[in-house]
Amino acid sequence: MRTEELRSEVEMARKEGCLFEVRRGKGRPWWWLYAVSMLLGLHLIWAYRVSHMPVAGEKGRWAWMAMFATELWFGFYWFITFSVRWNPIYRYTFKDRLSHRYEDKLPGVDVFICTADPIIEPPIIAINTVLSVLAYDYPPEKLSVYLSDDGGSIFTFYALLEASQFAKSWVPFCRKFNVQHMSPALFFSKSSISIHDSRFSEWTTMEKLYKDMEYRIDATMKQGYILKDIKAKHEGFSEWSFKTTSKDHQAIVKILIDGRDQIAQDIEGFALPTIVYMAREKHPNYHHNFKAGALNALLRVSEQISNGPIILTLDCDMCVNNVESIRDALCFFMDEERGHEYAFVQFPQSFRNIIKHDLYATSLNIIQMVNFPGHDGQGGPIYIGSCCFHRRACLNGRKYNELSKIEMKGKKPNILEASVSILEERTKNLATCSYEENTQWGKEMGLKYGCPVEDIITGLAIQCRGWKSAHFCPKREAFLGLAPTTLSQVLVQHKRWAEGHFQIFLSKYCPFLYGFRRIKLGLQMGYCIYSLWAVNCIPTLIYVVIPSICLLHEISLFPSVFSFWFIPFAFVIALSYVVSLWESLYFGETLKAWWNEQRMWLYKRTTSYLFAFVDTILKLIGMNDLAFAITPKVADEESSKRYENGIMEFGSTSPMFVILSAVAMLNLFCLVGGIKQVIIYGVGSLGSFFLQFLLCGSLVLINFPIFEASFFRNDKGCIPIKTTLLSVAVVIVAYFISIL
Ligand SMILES: O=c1ccn([C@@H]2O[C@H](COP(=O)(O)OP(=O)(O)O[C@H]3O[C@H](CO)[C@@H](O)[C@H](O)[C@H]3O)[C@@H](O)[C@H]2O)c(=O)[nH]1
Ligand SMILES: [Mn+2]
């Protein structure tokens, strides 16, 4: 049994020598008490629904059935969530033991960074990520950085060239000053130095060096072309004249710093890691398969150049923020007893731009702090695309075999023999999409194609090949990224996620089918929390519309406060909110952040998930194409300011906002209507409508930002009058339908 397994794992770690240790979460009896009482409450609610069903012809029979179906679904979904959360495990590493034993035998690490669009992902962000990686506390000859640019932008290439120059000063500076915020932008925004400090002049010189570089990149982008004398500095610029009309797919590979090169040595004797730029052309005849395609191309290219047995994948905005995270990851891979079972080590994705009360619930705190250790307890966390260390062999498609421990050293990379230009020429062909024609890339090898959450499906496949994975959450955040900062960005991002997960559920990779007998049932259910996100749109819409409309029509859908049946409803509602609030507060969120999170759940469920649901169905019947809407990493100045001040951003006329606004208006309308009836019929009638009032009232309350944005704001982020009118029209139509 799992319990035994865990106990013996901890035992083993105690025996000294192990590089990591596993500890089980505390407080499990409480969890069981919670689960049993919740189940009891749910059953009573269902019993009430069955026993009090209106007879045929009676008012509200359909509404009743919809409520019953919804509550069944919520119960089922709660059960899935609980099954993931009941047995979390937490991991600890012993990096001193690692250094002690393996310092001279550390494996090569290849870092893959993806960027795709120089406008919504400005190159300065991507190169800050590159620079943060270069500042890792790791032997430079064993570290290589690859930047994939799906935008194929000459400006990104230029920025990387600048960065590889700047790195020669930045990396030694980081060592000398023991810099912890390894991305220069973050470092200079977070730390300051006193004029009396002996390091003052060095510090300010470095700051100026960075600001100048930033300025040059910015100016070049504004100008729209690269100056002649800059172009003369690197022959790489000449490649941007390639013709896109060619029959074959084309790619560019440029080695900007060659790790074995002596010139790469800076004044103080610091060698720099290898830095490689790769771009794949957009070609009408070939699908470039978005990020998965980019990562697969990098796998092939890097195999020829550095061939590190460990790979770290990062999004362009995800800076390294902890000099030790490579070593943490290695503690899992290199542990003598159990290391060979692990395919990947996932770190949490943390964000550097979350505001005080986390307006859009973008920190993903609860998912990462509660769910992920739970997945880990069931055999392995999921792979979420960024901040994850992989074994190259596992990404390439290798099956787990108890007997074969993977050699960490990897084959000798070719860079030792071939010249840079030969390597570039050879790897260029490997980077193209035409190279993948009639191969297993995207199917059995590398990241999987055809899904907007390529990471999830790839991780699932790795686990189904017998590998374990680990979730590791160090005290100091290992990585810091940029969370979306406007409501529509968040909703679109979640639409992509929900859609991807739901597609997996409906495909042959459905965790229950594909994972059957390959991974634990608990882990299969774990994947389903997300796979079924999209489906939640329907029950949620039922719950936010029907009881309120029924309130208006004096149809009671819940037991009266004076009835016995009121107890299970009150109990389940109170318990689930108390537990969720407790979780949030426990993980350091504020009360207001929790409230904001509840609102975001409502918004995601009624818009992102709905659109994801519909789009997935359309795609299933062949009416829609696969897309990957990239999340912008920047917003305009005004809306950024509103974000900083915690003001919700609407602004555009998105159909998503019409739905949000319509739900809010409908509930306001019903609440007013309900109150009117109480005034007419007296407070006595309140009893049997109490829960409906509570629900409708909470919906009005939580939607306050929408009313504010429709009626009391006139900045550019308010709700356009068109959207408000449309939503009112929707409410009127809904009202007339309901009286038919
Ligand atoms: O055609 C593309 C599209 C995207 N990207 C890159 O993929 C990364 C992730 O894209 P982003 O729009 O930032 O997605 P997020 O929703 O923020 O990312 C989460 O979700 C994705 C899956 O939906 C994962 O790939 C990411 O790692 C994970 O952080 C970025 O670096 C992009 O530059 C490409 O390289 N090529
Ligand atoms: Mn992102």
TrEMBL record:
Gene Ontology MF terms in the entry: cellulose synthase (UDP-forming) activity
Protein name (record): Cellulose synthase-like protein E6
Alphabetical UniProt keywords: Cell wall biogenesis/degradation, Glycosyltransferase, Membrane, Transferase, Transmembrane, Transmembrane helix
Entry binding sites for UDP-alpha-D-glucose: 121, 150
BP GO annotations: cell wall organization; cellulose biosynthetic process; plant-type cell wall organization or biogenesis
Lineage, top ranks: Eukaryota, Viridiplantae, Streptophyta, Embryophyta, Tracheophyta
Residues given in the record as Mn(2+) binding sites: 291, 315
UniProt subcellular location: Endomembrane system
Active-site residues per Swiss-Prot or TrEMBL entry: 150, 455
TM annotation in the entry: 31-50, 62-84, 527-546, 566-588, 609-630, 650-672, 679-707, 719-737
Chief location category: membrane
Membrane topology recorded in Swiss-Prot or TrEMBL: Multi-pass membrane protein
Listed GO CC annotations: endomembrane system; membrane
